[in-house]
Amino acid sequence: MSDERGTSVLSLASRAGVLFSLIVHGAWTYFVHRMVRRGWLRRDQAWLEERDLGFAARFVRIAMEYRAGLIKLGQVASLRIDVIPDVMTAELVKLQDRVAPHPFDEIAFQVEREFGRPIGELFAHFEEEPVASASLGQVHRARDFSGNDLAVKVLYPEIERSVAIDLQMVRLALWLFNPLVPPDLMSIYHQLAGSLRGEMDYLQEGRAAERVKRNLSKDPELFSHLRIPEIDWRTTSTRVLTMEFIEGDKINDTEALEARGVDLQKAVEWATRAFLHQMFRDYFFHCDPHPGNLLVDENGLVVIIDFGMNQSIEPDLMDGIRANVLAAVTRNETLWVDSMIQVGIIRSEDREAARELARISFDPAYFNLTPKELTEIDFGDYFEKMRGHLWMLKSFRLPDGLVAWGRAFSLLYGLAAELAPGIRPLDIVGPYVLEFLQSSPAPGSEVSEGKLETTS
Fold first, then answer.
1. 450 in a domain, yes or no?
2. Which residues pair with 126 in a beta bridge?
3. Are residues 368 and 231 in the same domain?
4. Lower Cβ count inside 10 Å, N or C end of the chain?
5. What is the C-alpha to C-alpha distance for residues 313 and 402, in angstroms, rounded to an integer?
6. For the chain, how are helix, strand and coil distributed in percent, rounded to 5?
7. Which distant-in-sequence residues (6+ apart) come within 8 Å of 291 by Cβ?
8. Predicted model pTM
9. How far is CA 223 from CA 26, 175, 262, in A?
């Protein structure tokens, strides 16, 4: 079986050939869509969705075989509901970043190459069987010479070469399709490439974990219910990340948590607050709040792990989001359009078309709300409606930070709905939303300098 371990010229060429066949398949699927939409081919929606599903299912099969960056690419692509049909994204979300582990000799080789010393000189004990394995690396339990339990995350040897091939083929595909569709597909490439490269830089991941920890500690009450592993920088490098090993059960392991007497609803509430703090106050956040990245330790504290997917959002972008939501609430067409231009979602030449869209998209549900009602805005529903209308704009693109922000927000809602159906997510979200909407724009931003009109 070909996989990411094959990094010879022949295996990389074979990989490129398989990916090129996917591009051809995708091009044909798109061409069929165009023929149906223009009336050149008479087929119903169910027939089209069958074609879409066939392509997505083939991608999933190939990604699970060739792994490396393909699983990550599929997972990130599944978020782009603004440009990818729903039936495709529904299939892509089935990609699970859990794969068969690599042999221990490969892992030991990588660790020893990174530090130039035998693994026995770096750790007092290093377990050969991994506790977790994914598409880019795997985690082993270890112990330092002071007796501290550690988790050591190791990037697979030469994985960068396979990922580079994957990214080049994605870039080719998006470049070919870019002139044919309204959204800027090359912005998707930059999002995919940045996400993948960031996940292969364990120094960056370690710094992200410490940054989130510092930010959350600013709220002592919240932080007293949380735990983030300490990074051991003595044995951390670009390809090896060593951190404190924390015993715990996954937050969705309801049977184990109930047996321990853990109040699952409270655990979900504290986890949700932790991510809302990052997103609405810090503008730097862990992008992947799914149950696999959340544990409950032996003391009932919520443990956040795996900071490879993280995102920093510029204050100007958040100011634009704030202005856009307020514009929807007050039905202010001019502010709505100006905020879209400010954050780079559209260009000024689409101003009039966007104003027309504003008249269509303003939902009475957002009009003339009291402060209490403001706290009950469903941001996920709001952005889903916005994305649907924006497809009509020629210059439409979604900034990378906005995509990650919306994804994290949706995952939080899903987490609460799945694990704690007895709570109302908006009761938790409300205070953060109200504080966000009432906060002042960043100094020097277009909003703070009055460059965005406030009357229509």
1. no
2. 142
3. no
4. N
5. 8
6. 60, 10, 35
7. 250, 251, 252, 415, 418, 419
8. 0.80
9. 47, 45, 18
Question: Hey, what are 159's tokens?
Answer: 């994985």
- CATH of residue 288's domain is 1.10.510.10
- With b for 16 or more beta-carbon neighbours within 10 A and e for fewer, the 146-176 pattern comes to eeeebbbbbbbbbbbbbbbbbbebbbebbee
- Give the range of the structural domain holding residue 213, as residue numbers without chain letter: 104-155+201-311
324 near 438, Cβ under 8 Å?
A: no
Shared domain check, 182 and 227: no
What tens digit of pLDDT does each residue of 167-217 get? 888 888 878 777 666 566 777 778 778 888 889 999 999 999 999 999 999
What are the tens digits of pLDDT across the range 210-257?
999 999 999 999 999 999 999 999 999 999 999 999 999 999 999 999
Q: Is residue 1 in a domain?
A: no
Angle at 65 between CA 63 and CA 67, to 5 degrees: 55
Q: Are strands 248-250 and 226-227 parallel, antiparallel or unpaired?
A: unpaired
Instruction: Please report, in angstroms and rounded to a whole number, the separation of the first and last CA atoms in the chain.
Output: 62
Residues 43 and 115 in one domain: no
441 closest CA partner among 361, 272, 324: 324
Burial class (CB in 10 A: 0-12, 13-18, 19+), 40: exposed
**Do residue 220 and residue 366 come from a single domain?**
no
